[in-house]
Write a structure and sequence with these properties.
By secondary structure, the chain is of the alpha/beta class. The protein contains 14 helices and 5 strands. The protein folds into 2 domains: 161 residues, P-loop containing nucleotide triphosphate hydrolases (Rossmann fold, 3-Layer(aba) Sandwich); 102 residues. One of its GO terms (cellular component) is DNA polymerase III complex.
Amino acid sequence: MKVGRPFIGQEQAWQEWLAALGSDRMHHAWLLAGAKGLGKRAFACAAAGELVREPGGRLPDAVAHPDIHILEHLPANDDEAKKKAEGKPFQTKRNITIEQVRTMQHRLVTRPTLGDRRAIIIDPADDMEKSAVNALLKSLEEPPVGTYFLLIAHQPGRLLPTIRSRCRVLRFQSLAPDELDAVVRRDMPQADAAERAAAITASRGSPGVALSFIAQDLSEIHELMLAILHQGDGDFRLRGRLAAEMGARPSRERQLAALELARTVLSAELVTAGRAGQVKIIAAHSTLTRLSAQAPVYNFDAGLLIMEIGGLLASAAMPRETAR
């Protein structure tokens, strides 16, 4: 088996996948489990490419290959579909639907197009409708010959135990500072040493957070988030500065990056907080997680969203302020 594409910080998972490919009994379903932003989708696409690669051929593009099928959030409506086709930001449906799973299953009754293997990527599997999960379970119980499933899960506990039990798990770990630095140097070569250091500190091991930190210039926002969490914000002054720093009309990407950064800030604080503080942090983090799932789907008012983020951080710092 040739040595495949390296994944910084996830080499063990990659080698485990390559070893399975070279074995006589390849498991038919894989669960790629780990926090959001650890590179699971890129891993799944490369893994699927290795799976369907023709002997001696180049690693194919997973998006374009006829034997790699990716189930993901679809555009919310026809207007959003047009935005996607034009390469613009677009809103998505809330869940991966049963219709998507059924369409995929209809393809499974035919043989793969180019070889004897096909890959199904579901990103993320923990966002499937309940009916879609039940439909997928049937395929996992009786997988067609040559069909392999790669289920990406940010919160694998949300999946049915019957789904998890049929999958071999690949766990994705947070990256060490030197590994994060290597990722940032590779993907953001324009970032200077100070930007890299700030991004690495803020990201808490997540390359996705580190890269968006630099791309969206979140250094000042990070400092304000820390100030609200540590000092509280009874007079709303810090939240006003936070809203001003976000801008009047921030892009969807900037809003999502701010949500992920706020979750990371809370997660870091959880380690040193006392029991009472942990309860507040967990409550605020849970609400931020819900907002992060809804933000790509719903058209939130940007100003209200950043004030909500600030309010949740303040609620974790001040007993009299509670998350709405």
